[in-house]
Amino acid sequence: MAVTWSAPVRYSECDDQRVVFNANYLVWADEASNAWWPSVGLTWDPDGVAGVQPLVKAAALEWSSSAVWGDTVDVVCDLEKLGRTSLTLRFEVRVGDRLCCVVRSTYVATTDGVTVPWPDRVRAAVS
């Protein structure tokens, strides 16, 4: 289930040319992921999700155009891939109909810092 998180681009997120600094796309993806978990019926809290701690294993960004100060970004988040111990979320950062960036973040399920399979409850919710 895709979920959209939106926010205005703040001046503090931009460089001197009023273009969004690249690291902020990861911040926005993280915000959208925090909205995605509840959208599939899972609660994200300081203890994790369904008894495991999802940790980011990898993130990749691919830019198409820039968001700038004064824009409103819409970040559409959806599951791209579910593995035994990992899942990848895909984020499309858009300004209106214009695609600015695609972010892919891969999370691994962990318990006490050790990678574990996703609990059946998580697998059922995201499948």
Automatic annotation (TrEMBL):
GO molecular function: hydrolase activity
Matching Pfam families: 4HBT_2 (PF13279)
UniProt keyword annotations, A-Z: Hydrolase
Top-rank taxon, per record: Bacteria
Gene3D superfamilies: Hotdog Thioesterase
Keyword Hydrolase: yes
CDD domains, A to Z: 4HBT
InterPro entries, A to Z: HotDog_dom_sf (IPR029069)
SUPFAM superfamilies cross-referenced by the UniProt entry: Thioesterase/thiol ester dehydrase-isomerase
Keyword Membrane part of the UniProt annotation: no
Protein name: Acyl-CoA thioester hydrolase
Organism of provenance: Klenkia soli
